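Deliverable D5.2: sample structural annotation.
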Amino acid sequence: MNAEADALAAVKDADRKHVFHSWSAQELIDPLAVAGAEGSYFWDYQGNRFLDFSSALVYTNIGYQHPRVAAAIAEQAAKLCTVAPGFAVDVRSEAARLIAERTPGDLDKIFFTNAGAEAVENAVRMARLHTGRPKVLSAYRSYHGATSTAINLTGDARRFGNDTATAGVVHFWGPFLYRSPFHATTETEESARALRHLEDTIVFEGPQSIAAIILETVGGAPGVLVPPAGYLAGVRALCDRYGIVFILDEIMVGFGRTGAWFAADHWDITPDLLCFAKGVTSGYVPLGGVAISAAIAETFARRPYPGGLTYSGHVLACAAAVATINVMEEEDTVGRSARTGADLLGPGLRALAERHPAVGEVRGMGTFWALELVRDPSTREPLVPYNASGADNAPMAAFGAACKKGGLWPLIAGNRIHVAPACNISAEDAAKGLAILDEALSVADAHMA
């Protein structure tokens, strides 16, 4: 065997023997061995290159291996690799300052975590301590992480194996006109009826028992669910009316993904707490956090906050954040994401929908889109059932295989493909990805009823 084949065999053997993969039956998976990555591409040991339309797990916002961020991490490592979170450190302070400058409203205090799920855990803890109330409301179509509180807050099927029904979580239906639970026919109706349903839920659960409402500003894992006009403002008003903390989960959509620094900016909404992760470092070093309003920060001005993490604000992660934010600012990554969505991805995906009857709906913004694949456009029956696996999921598996055969790495969730390339993807690569999708969608069309 040649060197590449030897390396591949060694990686696969060690992975099979020692790595326990998430969300998987261990003996039923065969992970691709990745040899390297750069920009919008990664490749395997056999030289197959894939245009990454998933941004890993929607976090390589500036692409792979940006030289300035890699250099900043190395420079910080040479200077100071780590220090306990209780110290004031230049790079940690600078990361907090840069984030706070970009968060909406008065979210000027930053509590650092290692990732998004921990951000959600701490945001909920802050809300409960601030209000003295136990319950938290979250949407059925949602994903907030895999730690204890976060997975119970999650609405999608990944909750099922972890749900204790004792976590103080109450789920409700958020707006989703294409599959409206409210029998709405317009975005205006959907927004109004979803808000009425949410207020009814608040009233019947007892406002005095509800600490927080948590929402993904744009629903990520549930299908790139862009809220209708007026909905987020309506939730903000309900929270103000009943003294409830409003938490926005921007873990997936923050830092340019929707064509704004934070998706809340599109609707001019300021939550009380904002969770972030992923794109803040483009995933180069794990980092997450909670941006905190003045009122909630004041709660802990003279009262200790009972929470912390060994690696909170790890200096290598903060160095990556500082470099990433500066790169995004100087290279206009946020503006590029907005223009790519408006000029390339949006029109291109809608053109695919015109050609492929399996595409029931196109939705998204910036570099964050989804195609809803259906068996029948008139009934909107999903191409595969909810939470499908095995033979039931065969149509989506075949579609995904066609994407990979064409050199495109897709992000498939249920009956959808999520289109989430790097926020700075080139026009040429965006067009290339759309062309591969065009061919692969013929496979989906062949599986229609």
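Annotation notes: DSSP finds 13 helices and 16 strands in the chain. The chain has a mean pLDDT of 97.
The annotation will be released with the project's public dataset once the embargo ends.
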